[in-house]
Amino acid sequence: xxxxxxxxxxxxxxxxxxxxxxxxxxxxxxxxxxxxxxxxxxxxxxxxxxxxxxxxxxxxxxxxxxxxxxxxxxxxxxxxxxxxxxxxxxxxxxxxxxxxxxxxxxxxxxxxxxxxxxxxxxxxxxxxxxxxxxxxxxxxxxxxxxxxxxxxxxxxxxxxxxxxxxxxxxxxxxxxxxxxxxxxxxxxxxxxxxxxxxxxxxxxxxxxxxxxxxxxxxxxxxxxxxxxxxxxxxxxxxxxxxxxxxxxxxxxxxxxxxxxxxxxxxxxxxxxxxxxxxxxxxxxxxxxxxxxxxxxxxxxxxxxxxxxxxxxxxxxxxxxxxxxxxxxxxxxxxx
Amino acid sequence: xxxxxxxxxxxxxxxxxxxxxxxxxxxxxxxxxxxxxxxxxxxxxxxxxxxxxxxxxxxxxxxxxxxxxxxxxxxxxxxxxxxxxxxxxxxxxxxxxxxxxxxxxxxxxxxxxxxxxxxxxxxxxxxxxxxxxxxxxxxxxxxxxxxxxxxxxxxxxxxxxxxxxxxxxxxxxxxxxxxxxxxxxxxxxxxxxxxxxxxxxxxxxxxxxxxxxxxxxxxxxxxxxxxxxxxxxxxxxxxxxxxxxxxxxxxxxxxxxxxxxxxxxxxxxxxxxxxxxxxxxxxxxxxxxxxxxxxxxxxxxxxxxxxxxxxxxxxxxxxxxxxxxxxxxxxxxxx
DNA sequence: TACATTGATCGAACCGGTTCGACAAAGTCC
DNA sequence: GGACTTTGTCGAACCGGTTCGATCAATGTA
Lengths: 335, 335
Fold this sequence. Notes:
2 copies of one chain form a homodimer.
Chain A (H helix, E strand, L loop, with lengths): L4 H8 L3 H9 L6 H14 L5 H8 L4 E5 L12 H13 L3 E5 L4 H10 L5 E4 L8 H7 L4 E4 L9 E5 L1 H14 L4 E8 H6 L2 H17 L2 E7 L5 H12 L5 E4 L2 H14 L8 E6 L1 H6 L5 E4 L2 H17 L9 E4 L2 E3 L6
Parallel strand pairs in A: 1-2, 1-3, 3-4, 4-5, 5-11, 6-7, 6-8, 8-9, 9-10
Antiparallel strand pairs in A: 10-12
Helix pairs in contact in A: 1-2, 1-3, 5-14, 6-7, 8-10, 11-12
The structure holds a DNA duplex.
C-alpha cells in the first residue's frame, strides 16, 4: 500500500540498494542516476518506513521522555521541562516518546528492552530513584534531570540548588535583612526524596549560620487553600521577619493574592525572593526577584549529552554531573 | 546483542515460529511446550523488538499526539489535555509520540508517512486547520480535539461552547443579573481561527438578546500585566454591570489577585462565572462558579474512538462529531 | 599495452519478528 | 479399521529497509 524503496527503484530503473545509497550518501552515485531517483521519490511521494529502518540500523531516532506526574504536584511547572527536551531532540532529528505511566520503572524497562528508543531522558529524578537501576541495566544511554544519590555511570543535569540558596541569602543579607523565612517544597516532596528541597534549605541554613542571622524554615503546601492558610500562619508567627524566600512553585504562584489579601506590601513590609523560571514567572505574572531555574537549559543540556552518547557511546567520555549556574534576576521585590 | 525470538526458540528447543505463536496465542501450543517457552523467555529476559514487530504487522502501537504550543498561549492549560490522552492510550496498549514542532503540517506528514504511528490525535484544532488536509491524505486515522469548519471524514471531539455560554447566561439571568460583562479569549485567538472563542461569545450574545438583557463583550489579554490593566479598564468602564463571565484561562487565573487589588468583593460587588476544568481550578485555587471544560473526557473520548478506528477501519462506522455536555459547578461566586 | 585504481551499480544477506501452508501424530466417526 | 478432522509444530516467505562484497567500465599509471 505505502510506497517502498523498491517502488522508487523500479520507477528510476535502478536497484533498491542504489536508492538506499542515494538516500544516505554513503556511496557515490552518478549525477544522472541521482536525478532520476530524486524525481522518482518526488513523483511517488516516498518516505522510508521507520520500522524497517530501525530494524536494519538498530536506530529508532526516538528518545524516550520519562515524566512523573504526581497528582499532588503542581502540574503547570512540568511543561517547562518537557518542551525544551522535545524541541532540542527535534533539532537533532529525534522524536519524543512521552512516557507518563505511574509505574515508571516498568515503563522504562518496556521501552528500552523493546528497542523503542535510542535513549531516555528522566525528569524529576529523586534521591533514591528506582528507575536508575533499570536504566543502568538498559542497553540505551540515559540522561537525568535532577540529582540522585548515586550518579555512577549516569549523565546528570541539575540546577545548583545549594548555590541558589546562598545567592538569595547573600542578596538579602546584603540588603540588611537579619531574620528570614524560608518556605520549602511540601513535606511529601522531601519524603519522596526530592533532594532539591533539602539541598536548597540546608545551604540556606548553613549560610545564615555563617552570617549569624536567623532563618526560619517551613515546609510549604502544594495547594490552595492550604497555601494561603499556611502562609498566613507563618507570617503571623514571625512578625519580626523582614524577608521571605520561597522555594515552592505552587506557593509562589499563589503568593501575590495571599499577600494582597493580607494587605502586606512588597517590598515595604516584606522582601520576597524566590526561585522559578522566566516562563513560569511570565505565566503567573510573578513580580519577584528570583533565581532563574533554567528548565530550558537543563532540558537542552540533557538532550545534547544524550545525543552525543547515542552517537558514540565510547567517544562521549566519562559520565558527567553538571550543575547549571544559578543567576539572580532583580525584580524589585527586595529592599 | 539483545535477545531475539530465535534465542528463545533455541533455548526452548522449538522453532521461532512456535515461539511467536506461543506469544500471540494465534495457534494452539501444547502445555509442555508453552511451559518451556515461558521459562526460556523468563530466563533470557526476552522482549520482542518493536521495530521488527511493526515491520511484520504494520502496527506500531504508537499514537502521535500533535500539540501546538503558541508562545503567546497559556501553557499551563495544555497539560490537562496531554495527560488524559497519554493515560488512555496506555490503557489500550499504545504509547505516545509527542510532536511539538512549529511546522505541525510537515511534522504530521513526517510521522504518518514514515509509518511511525498507527493514528494521531490533534489538539487545539482551529477553524481552518492546515493540518487537516494532511491528515485526510494520511494512511492512518486521526481524532481531533477542537471543532474545525469542515469535519468531513474526521472524528471530532469538543466541548459544546455554545451550550456552555447559554448555561452561564441562564444561571446569571436566573439570579437577577441584567448587565453582564463577557471576557473572551485574546483577539489573536480569534484571528488564528480558534472557533471556540466566537462559538461561546455569539451564543452568549444571542441568549442575552432573547432575554432582553445587556452583554458587553471584550477580548481578554493573554498575559500580565496586560490582563490586570485591561480588566481594570473594563470594570471601570462598566460600573453598572453586576456580573462577569470569563472565558479565558490566563485571565481567570489572574482574576483573584486583580479583584483583590481593586478591593472588589465576590459575589457581593460582582458575580463571577467562568469556564475551566476541575484540575485547572485546583491548580490555581479558583473559587468561581464555572462550567467544567472536561479536558480529560475529551482526551479520553478522542483516544477511544481513534483506537476503535485503528482496530477496524470499516467497523468503526461513519465519522462522528461529538460534543461534551457542559456541566455547571456552583462555587458560590455568583449571587 | 598490461595492470592497478576508482566510480557506479547490483545482488544477496541480514535485521527480528509474523504468518501461511505443509505435515506428522493423535483423536473422532461410522 | 480406514477416512476424516484436529492439534502441535516446523520451514519458508515476507515486511522494507541497509550494507557487504562483487562486478564491470572507465580512468590512471608504469
